[in-house]
Specification:
The chain is an alpha/beta fold. It has 2 domains: about 30-75 and about 115-155 and about 315-415, FAD/NAD(P)-binding domain, CATH 3.50.50.100; about 165-310 and about 420-485, FAD/NAD(P)-binding domain, CATH 3.50.50. About 40% of the residues lie in helices and about 25% in strands. A 5-stranded parallel β-sheet has the order 5-2-1-9-21. Strands 11-18-12-13-14 form a 5-stranded parallel β-sheet. A 3-stranded antiparallel β-sheet has the order 6-7-8. β1 (about 45-50), α2 and β2 form a beta-alpha-beta unit. About 35% of the residues are buried. The structure holds 1,4-dihydronicotinamide adenine dinucleotide. 1,4-dihydronicotinamide adenine dinucleotide binds near residues 160, 211, 282, 310 and 312.
Length: about 500
């Protein structure tokens, strides 16, 4: 047993040393060029987005096979599963961010990155228009030709057109949202502490509402309650007693994608942790300092000091514009893709992955986008081989029949994308998590307990895209455990 332990420790040290070496000393990259050494043209592969799908594609892709261009207004990858931990400071926002330049520096061939919005896609001429995020600069709009285009532009927070949401609520989707939520929480607490304890305005300010009982809403409400119970209690005991965190969900239960037993456990646990769980409560209108909701046929008004909105996602404007250009795009929830992740109506050249797409077999989660990215990397390897053979076919004295057989063979080896659902995990507060895992067809459902909590943390750490992220997140958890969360803005 000692030998096994020693070998495991040495293997772990070896693995992390290698990772560290790779991050500090990236390999020399092959430059981009118009043609390969044999004279065949090198195709342009344009990837839109720097989220889960694009980054997993980039990490798996042999970038020496294409001129790879990435366009995204966000010059970093954001590890979204830990975003709900950031507003209260359990984890720092910078710890869950990896610059896209660092990611592309670790690929084999050089990759071009433009910090810009893609504003238009022209499938007929295989061109996209991009607009720099730095307005007013000369030539801030350019067109880029593509041979293959990957749309991985994600989605945006939905409001279901409920009046007042955009004006008064804060979303939980991007770093800027997390910073806004943090600032709002800390300022509201200070503002309330200025008022006498029996002042109704103070009571209103200390009502913190989280709308949407999906994983984002639950994890954020849990983190908020941790901050109040574990840290604010020590530095502002009176205020911490008076804050009420309410989680508002329109359906009869929260966390719909989880098993019923885990849902029941979580609901009981949250109530026990003093989270005011309001089920069957559909928000209909948001005023500057109260929400109007329908609860069991009755209209209720809930005043608030902080309102966080996490009711899911809707397509981006570019997604909607692209749908209009392709006749076969008839689904409003996202860009329709086939089983090989090709965009219906542009199957020869445009692929779609992640939350901007719609396929009846997959849900819009990070896990799906990640696997789709990995799948596309393999597809692009095969498309490169096919393109090479097609070029050879056009050369003088080519053995056309044998090349055609080879092309057919490779084409038929591009199998359909199969999503392997590994399961779901969620943090529910008080160092407790729930897990609903699917391992080799067997279902493992566990709630609470130290094992699940540490398992949740280990899985999230392993999912981080760089060693730097893993080290920073671990250091944040240690810092929070030892010193608590900080309450400054
Ligand atoms: P979601 O779509 O999962 O949940 C939104 C919730 O808001 C729903 O339960 C819905 O009934 C409720 N809602 C909608 N309108 C409402 C209204 N007007 N009033 C009250 N309640 C209303 O959204 P979420 O949590 O942002 O997650 C987005 C995606 O990311 C999901 O597919 C989710 O599975 C995934 N995700 C998974 C995580 C995990 O597995 N730990 C973590 C975060 C996200």
């Amino acid at each position: 047993i000692w030998k096994t332990t020693l070998y495991s420790i040495l293997a772990t040290i070896g693995y992390f040393s290698y990772q560290l070496y790779r991050e500090i000393h990236p390999k020399t990259q092959l430059p981009q060029s118009k043609t390969f050494e044999n004279g065949s043209p090198r195709k342009n592969l344009v990837i839109l987005g720097t989220g889960w799908g694009s980054v997993s594609l980039l990490q798996e892709l042999d970038t020496t096979l294409y001129n790879v261009i990435i366009v995204s207004p966000r010059n970093y990858f954001l590890f979204t599963p830990l975003l709900p931990s950031t507003p209260v400071g359990t984890v720092n926002v910078k710890s869950i961010v990896e610059p896209i330049r660092s990611i592309i520096r670790r690929t084999k061939g050089s990759v071009v990155y433009y910090e810009a919005w893609a504003t238009d896609i022209d499938p007929q001429n295989k061109q996209i228009t991009v607009k720099s995020v730095f307005p007013g600069e000369q030539e801030d709009i350019k067109t880029i030709d593509y041979d293959y285009l990957v749309l991985s532009i994600g989605a945006t927070s939905t409001t279901f057109n409920i009046p007042g949401v955009s004006e008064n609520a804060i979303f939980m989707k991007e770093i800027s949202d997390s910073e806004k939520v943090r600032s709002k929480i800390m300022k509201t607490i200070e503002k309330a502490s200025f008022l006498p304890r029996d002042d109704p305005e103070r009571r209103k300010l200390l009502n913190f509402l989280v709308v949407g009982g999906g994983p984002t809403g639950v994890e954020f409400a849990a983190e908020l309650q941790d901050f109040i119970k574990q840290d604010l209690k020590k530095i502002m005991p009176e205020i911490s007693q008076d804050i009420k965190v309410s989680l508002i969900e329109g359906l009869p239960n929260i966390l719909n994608m989880f098993d019923k037993k885990l849902i029941d456990y979580t609901e009981k646990f949250l109530i026990n942790e003093d989270v005011d769980l309001k089920l069957n409560t559909m928000v209909k209108k948001v005023n500057p300092d109260s929400i109007i909701a329908k609860c069991k046929g009755e209209e209720i008004e809930l005043p608030y000091g902080v309102l966080v909105w996490s009711t899911g996602i809707k397509p981006q404007q570019l997604t909607l514009d692209t749908m209009k250009k392709l006749d076969e795009q008839t689904e409003r929830r996202g860009l329709l893709i086939d089983d090989k992740l090709r965009l219906l109506g542009a199957q020869d050249s445009i692929f779609g992955i992640g939350d901007c797409t719609f396929h009846p077999g997959f849900v819009p989660t990070a896990q799906v986008a990640h696997q789709e990215g990995q799948y596309l990397a393999k597809t692009f390897q095969k498309l490169y081989e096919i393109d090479q053979l097609k070029w050879e076919q056009e050369q003088p004295n080519a053995d056309i029949n044998s090349i055609k057989t080879n092309i057919d063979k490779i084409e038929s080896s591009i199998v359909d994308f199969k999503y392997a659902h590994m399961g779901s995990l969620a943090y529910i507060g008080g160092d407790k998590a729930i897990m609903d895992l699917n391992i080799a067809g067997a279902q493992y459902r566990l709630s609470g307990g130290n094992f699940v909590f540490w398992f949740w943390r280990s899985v999230y750490l392993s999912m981080c895209v760089s060693l730097r992220n893993r080290v920073l997140v671990t250091a944040d958890w240690v810092r929070t455990f030892v010193f608590g969360r900080d309450s400054s803005v």
